Automatic annotation (TrEMBL):
It holds the Pfam family Usp. This is Universal stress protein. Belongs to the universal stress protein A family. It comes from the Bacteria. Residues 1-140 form the UspA domain. CDD domains: USP-like (cd00293). It comes from Paraburkholderia piptadeniae.
Length: 140
């Protein structure tokens, strides 16, 4: 079965709803869980003077979200430690982090925070499904 699950989270409602199912899936599988948030530099380039403040704020928000997930996971006997990284696109960050951590499955919501962008550019979930060599389980 699975040993290490990457759970991309972006603070959206559907992402939050996926958390309890991911924790249960990890518990049943005997897997550890890594909630992951990608801080992407699409809106503010890393050479912009606002970048450090934006990145710091985004990482603080991610850590707060991860802490809630870590607590819920611990209550269910699941080992859980959050992770963040910076990437030019969330799907690239998700795949890279899953590979870096040697995750054997990515458990992610069917869509995320920005449905308008998804209509124009394609959803991050669809991009992960299309490009990941690691199995992807999609929560609806």
């Amino acid at each position: 079965m699975f040993k290490h699950i990457l759970l991309p989270v972006d603070g959206s409602d559907v992402s939050r709803r996926a958390v309890s199912s991911a924790i249960e899936f990890a518990r049943i599988s005997g897997a550890r869980l890594t909630p992951y948030t990608c801080v992407h530099d699409q809106w503010i380039p890393t050479d912009n003077e606002l970048w450090p403040e934006y990145a710091s704020h985004a990482q603080d928000e991610a850590r707060a979200e991860h802490a809630k997930i870590e607590e819920a996971a611990a209550q269910n006997g699941v080992h859980c430690v959050g992770a963040t990284s910076v990437a030019s696109s969330p799907y690239l960050g998700i795949i890279a982090k899953a590979m870096e951590l040697e995750c054997d499955v990515i458990f992610m919501a069917s869509h995320g925070r920005n449905r308008v962008s998804s209509l124009l550019l394609g959803s991050e979930t669809q991009k992960v499904l299309s490009h990941s060599a690691i199995p992807v389980l999609v929560f609806r």
